[in-house]
Amino acid sequence: MRTGSAWRVRGRRLGGAVRRGLRRCVARWRPILLVLLVVATLGWAGGLYYYDYRPDQQTDAAVAREVIKAASDGAVALLSYSPDSLSRDVQSAKSRITPGFEAMYERFIEQVVTPASQRGQLTTTVHVIRAAVAELQPKSAVVLLFIGQKLVSKLKPEPVNTTSSVRVELTKVNNTWLINTFDSTHA
After folding, report:
1. Which has the closest alpha carbon to 83: 126, 125, 121, 124?
2. Which of 53, 74, 124, 174 has CB atoms 3.0–4.6 Å from 179's, for a disulfide?
3. Which residue pairs from 175-178 have beta carbons closer than 8 angstroms and sit at least 24 positions apart in sequence?
4. Domain boundaries 59-186, corresponding CATH code
5. What is each CA distance from 5 to 2, 8, 11, 18, 39, in whole angstroms?
């Protein structure tokens, strides 16, 4: 039979062994936890770059100017035409729009522009007065345009000037900004 002091000595030895074992376990896991912490931090930094910083690089001031130019040139091409160069004007406009918008544009040309142009010898000239980017994403943009339009016809040789505000949605296709939606309202 063991006495109380023997049990205390044995308990101290076991307690010391448990503490040593715990220290060894912590010593083994410490580098693993440190590596996991470093990997998690790098993953967080990579995610921050990819989702916050990288889109900002893809939509900087140079891209905004490029989008405004594409929207402005596209609006001029879509709305400027004359009876002498109608087919050339339409082809120029088609090169600036997405295939999804092309069907609607062709209906507009067939139903409105061609008859008006041929019947009244109507010439339309458009210029962009002001333009601003409303939304800019790496693959899409919305530009607001304020345009001036001059209409001259054989029946009315005196030019008629109008202004409109236009909301242009663009999509980036093969590194080229193309018009996807074109909504006009008279100012």
Report:
1. 121
2. 74
3. 176/70, 177/66, 177/67, 177/70, 177/71, 177/141, 178/70, 178/74, 178/96, 178/97, 178/98, 178/101
4. 3.10.450.230
5. 8, 5, 10, 20, 51
Q: What are phi and psi of 80, to 5 degrees?
A: -100, 130
pLDDT digits (tens, 9 = 90+) for 118-167: 777 888 999 999 999 999 988 999 999 999 999 888 888 899 999 999 99
- Answer whether 94's CB lies under 8 Å from 102's CB: yes
Domain boundaries, the chain: 1-58, 59-186
Q: What is the mean pLDDT of residues 27-31?
A: 82
**Burial of residue 66, with CB atoms counted within 10 A of its CB: 0-12 exposed, 13-18 middle, 19 or more buried:** middle
CB atoms within 10 A of CB 165: 15
pLDDT band per the 50, 70, 90 thresholds, residue 7: low
Query: Does the model's pTM come out above 0.70?
Result: no
Which token pair is 118?
A: 């041929």
Output 162-165 pairs: Cβ under 8 A, ≥24 positions apart.
162/186, 163/129, 163/187
CA-to-CA distance for 81 and 28, rounded, in angstroms?
78
Q: Where are the beta strands (DSSP E) in the chain?
A: 123-136, 140-152, 160-173, 176-186
Dist. CA 26–CA 150, nearest whole Å:
81
